[in-house]
Design a protein that fits this description.
41% of the residues lie in helices and 22% in strands. By secondary structure, it is α+β, with helices and mostly antiparallel strands. The protein has 2 domains: 28 residues; 115 residues, Cytidine Deaminase, domain 2 (3-Layer(aba) Sandwich). It has a 5-stranded mixed sheet with strand order 2-1-3-4-5, with helices on both faces. Strand 1 and strand 2 form a beta hairpin. The protein starts with a helix and ends in a 7-residue tail after the last strand. About 13% of the residues have low confidence.
Length: 152
C-alpha cells in the first residue's frame, strides 16, 4: 500500500470516529433549552485554563451542524470578530447559531466586552439572516444564558 493510500485511509477513519463520537456525546440531537447547549459545551471545554470562544451552528430544526473553536485567548480575554463566526455559519449552511465561552476565573457573570460582542454578533446575524439564539458563558459548575438574562 502506498503512502498516499495509507493517508487517505487514516483520513477516512478519523472522520468516521468523529461522527460516531458526536452521536455518543449528544444522542438526542436537538437543542431545546440553554441547559442542553451548556451540557454539550462542557464536554469539550470545561477544563480549559484559558478563555475559549466557540460557535455551534444549527439547522432549521435546532439540530447541531458543527461545533467550532473561534478563538483561544488568555486567562481573561479572547479576540472575536463576526467575520470568523459567520464564516463557519456560511460553510455549514446554518439557520442559526449559539455562542459559548468559558471564564477560567469560574465566575460566569458577563463582562461589558461579552455584552458588546454579543450585540455585534446579533446585529451581524440579522443582516445575514442567521439568528443568534444565545450566548452562554460557562463558569465553575454553573453557566449564564445571556438570552435568559435579557442581555441580548
Amino acid at each position: 500500500m502506498s503512502k498516499n493510500n495509507v493517508a487517505k485511509r487514516i483520513e477516512f477513519v478519523s472522520l468516521r470516529m468523529v461522527r460516531e463520537k458526536t452521536s455518543l456525546l449528544y444522542p438526542q440531537r436537538i437543542i431545546r433549552k440553554p441547559d442542553d447547549a451548556a451540557k454539550l459545551f462542557r464536554q469539550f471545554m470545561e477544563d480549559c485554563d484559558r478563555e475559549v470562544f466557540c460557535v455551534m451552528t444549527l439547522d432549521t430544526k435546532n439540530q447541531p451542524n458543527a461545533f467550532q473553536i473561534i478563538s483561544v485567548g488568555t486567562l481573561n480575554a479572547s479576540l472575536v470578530h463576526p467575520r470568523e463566526v459567520f464564516k463557519v455559519c456560511m460553510l455549514t449552511n446554518a439557520a442559526s447559531l449559539m455562542c459559548f465561552h468559558n471564564h477560567p476565573s469560574g465566575n460566569p457573570i458577563p463582562s461589558p466586552q461579552d455584552i458588546e460582542i454579543t450585540e455585534r454578533l446579533r446585529d451581524s446575524g440579522t443582516l445575514l439572516g442567521i439568528d443568534l439564539l444565545d450566548h452562554i458563558i460557562i463558569g465553575d459548575g454553573s453557566f449564564i444564558s445571556m438570552k435568559e438574562r435579557g442581555l441580548m
